[in-house]
Amino acid sequence: MKDEQITVGFIGTGIMGGPMAANLAKAGHRVRAWNRSPDKAQALASIGVAVSETFQHAAEQADVVVVMLSSGPVCDEVILGPNGLLAAMKPQSTLVVMSSISVETAQQQAKAAAERGIGYLDAPVSGGEKGAKDATLAIMVGGEEITFERISALLNVMGNPVHVGPAGTGQLAKLANQLIVANTIATVSEAVLLAERGGADPAKVREALLGGFADSTILRAHAPRMIANDFAPGGPAKWQLKDTQTAIALAKELSLELPVTSLVNSLFTDLVAHGDGELDHSALIRELRRRNEMPVD
Protein backbone atom coordinates (compact mmCIF):
# COMPACT_ATOMS: atom_id res chain seq x y z
CA MET A 1 0.00 0.00 0.00
CA LYS A 2 3.01 2.29 0.00
CA ASP A 3 2.28 4.28 -3.14
CA GLU A 4 -1.36 3.60 -3.81
CA GLN A 5 -4.57 5.35 -2.91
CA ILE A 6 -5.97 3.79 0.25
CA THR A 7 -9.55 3.67 1.46
CA VAL A 8 -9.55 4.89 5.05
CA GLY A 9 -12.28 4.79 7.65
CA PHE A 10 -11.57 7.53 10.18
CA ILE A 11 -13.32 7.24 13.55
CA GLY A 12 -13.23 10.36 15.71
CA THR A 13 -12.76 13.79 14.09
CA GLY A 14 -12.31 16.08 17.08
CA ILE A 15 -9.50 18.54 17.85
CA MET A 16 -6.83 16.11 16.70
CA GLY A 17 -8.71 13.66 14.48
CA GLY A 18 -10.25 16.31 12.25
CA PRO A 19 -6.94 17.71 10.94
CA MET A 20 -5.47 14.20 10.68
CA ALA A 21 -8.37 13.01 8.52
CA ALA A 22 -8.09 16.19 6.45
CA ASN A 23 -4.41 15.55 5.74
CA LEU A 24 -5.18 12.02 4.55
CA ALA A 25 -7.83 13.34 2.17
CA LYS A 26 -5.54 16.10 0.89
CA ALA A 27 -2.91 13.43 0.16
CA GLY A 28 -5.36 11.74 -2.20
CA HIS A 29 -6.67 8.92 -0.07
CA ARG A 30 -10.35 8.03 0.00
CA VAL A 31 -11.54 8.95 3.49
CA ARG A 32 -14.87 8.11 5.07
CA ALA A 33 -15.29 9.67 8.52
CA TRP A 34 -17.56 9.26 11.53
CA ASN A 35 -17.82 11.25 14.75
CA ARG A 36 -20.22 11.10 17.70
CA SER A 37 -20.96 14.78 17.10
CA PRO A 38 -21.86 14.71 13.37
CA ASP A 39 -21.12 18.39 12.76
CA LYS A 40 -17.41 17.84 13.44
CA ALA A 41 -17.24 15.21 10.71
CA GLN A 42 -19.45 17.22 8.36
CA ALA A 43 -16.93 20.06 8.44
CA LEU A 44 -14.58 17.80 6.44
CA ALA A 45 -17.00 17.27 3.56
CA SER A 46 -15.73 20.35 1.72
CA ILE A 47 -12.33 18.71 1.17
CA GLY A 48 -13.76 15.47 -0.15
CA VAL A 49 -14.22 13.42 3.01
CA ALA A 50 -17.34 11.27 2.89
CA VAL A 51 -19.32 11.45 6.13
CA SER A 52 -20.87 8.28 7.54
CA GLU A 53 -23.89 8.10 9.83
CA THR A 54 -22.42 5.09 11.67
CA PHE A 55 -18.89 4.01 12.46
CA GLN A 56 -19.71 0.59 10.99
CA HIS A 57 -20.44 2.19 7.63
CA ALA A 58 -17.18 4.14 7.76
CA ALA A 59 -15.26 0.90 8.33
CA GLU A 60 -17.01 -1.57 6.00
CA GLN A 61 -14.96 -1.16 2.82
CA ALA A 62 -11.85 0.39 4.33
CA ASP A 63 -8.34 -0.93 3.81
CA VAL A 64 -7.32 0.86 6.99
CA VAL A 65 -9.48 2.06 9.87
CA VAL A 66 -8.01 4.80 12.06
CA VAL A 67 -9.46 5.33 15.53
CA MET A 68 -8.92 8.67 17.29
CA LEU A 69 -11.35 8.51 20.22
CA SER A 70 -11.01 9.89 23.72
CA SER A 71 -10.23 6.90 25.97
CA GLY A 72 -9.73 3.17 26.31
CA PRO A 73 -13.30 2.37 27.42
CA VAL A 74 -14.73 4.40 24.51
CA CYS A 75 -12.38 2.64 22.09
CA ASP A 76 -13.35 -0.78 23.46
CA GLU A 77 -17.03 0.07 23.12
CA VAL A 78 -16.60 1.02 19.47
CA ILE A 79 -14.05 -1.64 18.53
CA LEU A 80 -14.99 -4.80 20.42
CA GLY A 81 -18.79 -4.78 20.72
CA PRO A 82 -20.89 -7.36 18.86
CA ASN A 83 -21.63 -4.66 16.30
CA GLY A 84 -18.24 -2.99 16.67
CA LEU A 85 -15.53 -2.05 14.21
CA LEU A 86 -13.87 -5.45 14.14
CA ALA A 87 -17.17 -7.05 13.20
CA ALA A 88 -17.63 -4.53 10.38
CA MET A 89 -14.10 -4.55 8.97
CA LYS A 90 -13.10 -6.77 6.08
CA PRO A 91 -10.45 -9.50 6.52
CA GLN A 92 -6.83 -8.48 5.84
CA SER A 93 -7.60 -4.83 6.58
CA THR A 94 -5.74 -2.95 9.32
CA LEU A 95 -6.98 -1.26 12.47
CA VAL A 96 -4.83 1.62 13.74
CA VAL A 97 -5.74 2.91 17.19
CA MET A 98 -4.19 6.36 17.58
CA SER A 99 -6.00 7.17 20.83
CA SER A 100 -4.09 7.17 24.11
CA ILE A 101 -5.19 3.98 25.88
CA SER A 102 -3.63 1.59 28.37
CA VAL A 103 -0.96 -0.91 27.35
CA GLU A 104 -3.21 -3.78 28.43
CA THR A 105 -6.15 -2.45 26.42
CA ALA A 106 -3.99 -2.24 23.28
CA GLN A 107 -2.78 -5.80 23.77
CA GLN A 108 -6.34 -7.08 24.19
CA GLN A 109 -7.51 -5.22 21.10
CA ALA A 110 -4.58 -6.65 19.10
CA LYS A 111 -5.55 -10.19 20.14
CA ALA A 112 -9.19 -9.62 19.19
CA ALA A 113 -8.15 -8.22 15.80
CA ALA A 114 -5.84 -11.16 15.08
CA GLU A 115 -8.67 -13.58 15.77
CA ARG A 116 -10.58 -11.95 12.89
CA GLY A 117 -7.65 -11.84 10.51
CA ILE A 118 -7.26 -8.08 10.90
CA GLY A 119 -3.92 -6.32 11.37
CA TYR A 120 -3.54 -4.10 14.42
CA LEU A 121 -1.30 -1.20 15.39
CA ASP A 122 -1.47 0.95 18.49
CA ALA A 123 -0.11 4.29 17.32
CA PRO A 124 -0.70 7.12 19.80
CA VAL A 125 0.50 10.58 18.87
CA SER A 126 2.07 13.67 20.38
CA GLY A 127 2.25 17.19 19.03
CA GLY A 128 -1.14 18.66 19.85
CA GLU A 129 -3.54 20.39 17.50
CA LYS A 130 -0.72 22.22 15.72
CA GLY A 131 1.11 18.98 15.04
CA ALA A 132 -2.10 17.42 13.74
CA LYS A 133 -2.69 20.35 11.37
CA ASP A 134 0.92 20.55 10.21
CA ALA A 135 1.27 16.75 9.84
CA THR A 136 4.29 16.76 12.15
CA LEU A 137 2.92 14.48 14.86
CA ALA A 138 5.24 12.11 16.68
CA ILE A 139 3.60 8.71 16.08
CA MET A 140 4.69 5.89 18.42
CA VAL A 141 3.74 2.55 16.90
CA GLY A 142 3.33 -0.87 18.49
CA GLY A 143 2.39 -4.03 16.61
CA GLU A 144 3.85 -6.45 14.09
CA GLU A 145 6.59 -4.90 11.99
CA ILE A 146 5.14 -6.29 8.75
CA THR A 147 1.85 -4.52 9.48
CA PHE A 148 3.71 -1.29 10.20
CA GLU A 149 5.67 -1.54 6.96
CA ARG A 150 2.47 -2.15 4.99
CA ILE A 151 0.88 1.16 6.01
CA SER A 152 3.89 3.28 7.01
CA ALA A 153 3.38 5.58 4.00
CA LEU A 154 -0.15 6.33 5.20
CA LEU A 155 1.12 7.15 8.68
CA ASN A 156 3.77 9.41 7.16
CA VAL A 157 0.99 11.63 5.83
CA MET A 158 0.06 12.47 9.44
CA GLY A 159 3.50 12.78 10.97
CA ASN A 160 6.65 10.88 11.84
CA PRO A 161 5.93 7.24 12.72
CA VAL A 162 8.46 5.08 14.58
CA HIS A 163 7.88 1.38 15.17
CA VAL A 164 8.93 0.70 18.79
CA GLY A 165 7.96 -2.94 19.33
CA PRO A 166 5.03 -5.36 19.71
CA ALA A 167 1.41 -4.40 20.42
CA GLY A 168 1.14 -2.17 23.46
CA THR A 169 4.59 -0.63 23.21
CA GLY A 170 3.27 2.32 21.25
CA GLN A 171 1.14 3.14 24.28
CA LEU A 172 4.12 2.56 26.56
CA ALA A 173 6.11 5.11 24.55
CA LYS A 174 3.18 7.53 24.73
CA LEU A 175 3.06 7.20 28.51
CA ALA A 176 6.77 8.04 28.66
CA ASN A 177 6.00 11.05 26.45
CA GLN A 178 3.16 12.15 28.66
CA LEU A 179 5.27 11.95 31.81
CA ILE A 180 7.81 14.28 30.22
CA VAL A 181 5.08 16.65 28.98
CA ALA A 182 3.15 16.81 32.26
CA ASN A 183 6.23 17.18 34.43
CA THR A 184 7.75 19.83 32.14
CA ILE A 185 4.49 21.81 32.13
CA ALA A 186 4.63 21.85 35.93
CA THR A 187 8.27 23.00 35.95
CA VAL A 188 7.72 25.71 33.34
CA SER A 189 4.68 26.89 35.32
CA GLU A 190 6.81 27.22 38.43
CA ALA A 191 9.49 29.10 36.48
CA VAL A 192 6.92 31.59 35.18
CA LEU A 193 5.59 32.15 38.71
CA LEU A 194 9.10 32.59 40.10
CA ALA A 195 9.91 35.19 37.45
CA GLU A 196 6.66 37.06 38.12
CA ARG A 197 6.99 37.05 41.92
CA GLY A 198 10.67 37.98 41.70
CA GLY A 199 9.93 41.10 39.66
CA ALA A 200 11.14 40.04 36.23
CA ASP A 201 9.22 40.13 32.96
CA PRO A 202 8.40 36.41 32.47
CA ALA A 203 8.26 36.84 28.70
CA LYS A 204 11.82 38.21 28.72
CA VAL A 205 12.97 35.42 31.04
CA ARG A 206 11.54 32.89 28.59
CA GLU A 207 13.33 34.62 25.72
CA ALA A 208 16.61 34.51 27.64
CA LEU A 209 16.27 30.77 28.23
CA LEU A 210 15.67 29.81 24.60
CA GLY A 211 18.56 27.87 23.16
CA GLY A 212 19.97 26.88 26.56
CA PHE A 213 19.62 23.61 28.45
CA ALA A 214 16.23 24.74 29.79
CA ASP A 215 14.81 25.14 26.28
CA SER A 216 11.97 22.80 25.31
CA THR A 217 8.84 22.61 23.19
CA ILE A 218 6.84 23.32 26.35
CA LEU A 219 8.86 26.47 27.10
CA ARG A 220 8.45 27.66 23.52
CA ALA A 221 4.78 26.79 22.98
CA HIS A 222 3.16 26.91 26.40
CA ALA A 223 5.02 29.54 28.44
CA PRO A 224 3.51 32.35 26.31
CA ARG A 225 0.04 30.87 26.91
CA MET A 226 0.68 30.77 30.65
CA ILE A 227 1.83 34.38 30.65
CA ALA A 228 -1.16 35.52 28.56
CA ASN A 229 -3.70 33.28 30.36
CA ASP A 230 -4.69 31.82 26.98
CA PHE A 231 -5.86 28.27 27.61
CA ALA A 232 -8.05 27.42 24.63
CA PRO A 233 -7.63 23.65 24.51
CA GLY A 234 -5.17 22.00 22.20
CA GLY A 235 -4.78 19.11 24.64
CA PRO A 236 -7.39 19.36 27.43
CA ALA A 237 -6.12 19.03 31.01
CA LYS A 238 -8.58 16.21 31.72
CA TRP A 239 -6.88 14.04 29.11
CA GLN A 240 -3.44 14.87 30.52
CA LEU A 241 -4.73 13.69 33.88
CA LYS A 242 -6.02 10.48 32.30
CA ASP A 243 -2.56 9.78 30.92
CA THR A 244 -0.68 10.47 34.15
CA GLN A 245 -3.11 8.27 36.05
CA THR A 246 -2.61 5.48 33.51
CA ALA A 247 1.17 5.81 33.79
CA ILE A 248 1.08 5.67 37.59
CA ALA A 249 -1.17 2.58 37.52
CA LEU A 250 1.24 0.82 35.15
CA ALA A 251 4.26 1.84 37.24
CA LYS A 252 2.58 0.28 40.27
CA GLU A 253 2.12 -2.98 38.36
CA LEU A 254 5.83 -2.86 37.48
CA SER A 255 6.83 -2.10 41.11
CA LEU A 256 8.15 1.32 40.11
CA GLU A 257 7.93 4.47 42.20
CA LEU A 258 7.46 7.69 40.20
CA PRO A 259 7.54 10.44 42.87
CA VAL A 260 7.75 13.43 40.50
CA THR A 261 4.91 12.18 38.30
CA SER A 262 2.82 11.36 41.39
CA LEU A 263 3.15 14.94 42.60
CA VAL A 264 2.33 16.38 39.17
CA ASN A 265 -0.65 14.01 38.92
CA SER A 266 -1.99 15.45 42.18
CA LEU A 267 -1.72 18.95 40.71
CA PHE A 268 -3.67 17.95 37.61
CA THR A 269 -6.23 16.16 39.83
CA ASP A 270 -6.84 19.39 41.73
CA LEU A 271 -6.89 21.45 38.52
CA VAL A 272 -9.67 19.28 37.10
CA ALA A 273 -11.51 19.24 40.45
CA HIS A 274 -11.55 23.04 40.36
CA GLY A 275 -13.40 22.96 37.03
CA ASP A 276 -10.49 23.55 34.65
CA GLY A 277 -10.45 20.14 33.00
CA GLU A 278 -11.63 21.46 29.63
CA LEU A 279 -8.83 24.02 29.48
CA ASP A 280 -5.50 23.28 27.83
CA HIS A 281 -3.06 21.29 29.95
CA SER A 282 -0.84 24.37 30.15
CA ALA A 283 -3.54 25.74 32.47
CA LEU A 284 -1.80 23.82 35.25
CA ILE A 285 -0.28 27.18 36.18
CA ARG A 286 -3.75 28.15 37.40
CA GLU A 287 -3.55 25.48 40.09
CA LEU A 288 -0.12 26.68 41.15
CA ARG A 289 -1.48 30.23 41.32
CA ARG A 290 -4.27 29.01 43.60
CA ARG A 291 -1.78 27.29 45.88
CA ASN A 292 0.24 30.49 46.10
CA GLU A 293 -2.85 32.66 46.68
CA MET A 294 -2.22 34.53 43.41
CA PRO A 295 -4.92 35.81 41.02
CA VAL A 296 -6.01 33.02 38.66
CA ASP A 297 -7.60 35.10 35.88
TrEMBL record:
Residues covered by the 6-phosphogluconate dehydrogenase NADP-binding domain: 7-163
Listed InterPro entries: 6-PGluconate_DH-like_C_sf, 6PGD_dom2, 6PGDH_NADP-bd, HIBADH-like_NADP-bd, HIBADH-related, NAD(P)-bd_dom_sf
Domain named 3-hydroxyisobutyrate dehydrogenase-like NAD-binding: residues: 168-287
Pfam families reported in the protein's UniProt record: NAD_binding_11, NAD_binding_2
Entry keyword set: NAD, Oxidoreductase
SUPFAM superfamilies according to UniProt: 6-phosphogluconate dehydrogenase C-terminal domain-like (SSF48179), NAD(P)-binding Rossmann-fold domains (SSF51735)
PANTHER family found in the cross-reference section: 3-HYDROXYISOBUTYRATE DEHYDROGENASE-LIKE 1, MITOCHONDRIAL-RELATED
Name of the protein this chain belongs to: NAD(P)-dependent oxidoreductase
Source species of the chain: Vreelandella neptunia
